[in-house]
Amino acid sequence: MTTTVHNLIDGQWVGDPQAERRNPARPEELVSVAPSSGTDAVDAALVAAGQAQRAWAATPAPTRGAILLDAADLLRSRQADVARDLVREEGKTLAEGMGEVRRAIDVLRYFGSQGWRHGGDVLPSAVPGTTVFTRAEPIGVAALITPWNFPIAIPAWKMAPALISGNAVVLKPAELTPVSASHLATALTDAGLPGGVLNVVHGKGSVVGDALARDPRVGALSFTGSTAVGLGLHELLHARRARVQLEMGGKNAYLVLDDADPVAAARVVAAGAFGLTGQACTATSRVYCTPGIHEAFVAAVAKEAEGFVPGDGLDPATTMGPVVSVAQLATDVAAVERARQQGATVVAGGAEPEGQLFAPTVLTGVAHDADVVRKEVFGPVVAVIEVADYDEGLARVNDSDYGLTAGICTGSLAAAHHFAEHAAVGVVKVNRPTSGLDLNVPFGGVKDSSSNTFREQGPTATEFYTWSKTVYLGFE
Ligand code: UN1
Fold first, then answer.
1. The domain that contains 346 carries what CATH number?
2. Residue range of the domain that includes 380
3. Which of 47, 212, 254, 280 has its CA 20 to 30 A from that of 411?
4. Is 281 a catalytic residue?
């Protein structure tokens, strides 16, 4: 079945669907046709958002929240169908797809319930007879540019805090995954979200994304995607002093110490490196082992890699879905080839892909400056390197342009605490995979991984979408 996707502008489903998306597991299957919008659609969406925002901000926050909560219930009742569509367009396994839709549902519930407590602080004044309070004012219109790898969860975790804070939104979903974003928008409109409060414009980043970034009606732009694109957006938004939030690449490292169990450590690393076909900015791609565990860990992680069953995500036997696109597949293949040229030994995977199926790949014998250690691949490829001791391992973990997530496998609480304090990353995992985040805690990175300003998710996610006004109240 082919889904016809439209833009959502001012509460109407409009636009001329032209761009085809095929199932990465079965390229003969046409999954969707979506608009490839021009700047006229961006303009219409911004006009609608600007008009709707005032009334939306004036709507009581608990009423705004009730719409998010109702949308969550609708998405819950549609979870299996939405997850199947997500798998057909993105390629992850059905279990991963079900989990992702569940995450979008929980995100809507979490921020929907925040409608009951949205507000500011009450503080004493030094002036007699005076009270001070703060108001969290909405920015106005927020633009969201989201990636294909979490095609419903990331739009949800950006738009829910924007909406609950009284903003109107224009979403530009990834071109590869238009259907998942449409399901989310449909749940919200079915739940009674007024027209114009959420607009969705499909199309190219270089057209739709660029127009949003340049338009002065956009007061805040939140982006998840590549570092190269993110840094370009940063320039544009900063030049006109608009808010910008960027979640970009990662080169996430794991440190495995001698006192860890090699098999348990291999499971943690494999889950982070190969889960979601390695297509997460939080995926593990470098592992440093101290000498006493290196050999046993390499054997165990190779065994984990070989245990994956790549295939169509809708097949229950599949434990790893296909690579999302032919272009991404070429990147994965080229990264392994380049690593080989630079001296790597392939201890698992590395075979010719079958269709868009790429076997999880483990590399050893890699130099610290090899491309596969320095550059993001965004595929199921991990390099394992021996280090002399904990101190060298920590230094290697931190020797990266990126700083998103890092992990340590150890039984030592002292080592775990030291690592948590000194790892130059936004998220530290001890004995848990680098990917996989809770929705109720802050998420973001440092260095080239993030704008490192406002964090996404958790109780402080709304800070990006609001500004603080201070009110002095004097009554004698
Ligand atoms: C996760 O690891 O559960 O695009 C989420 C990404 C990140 C989100 C990762 N922004 O991969």
1. 3.40.309.10
2. 252-430
3. 280
4. yes
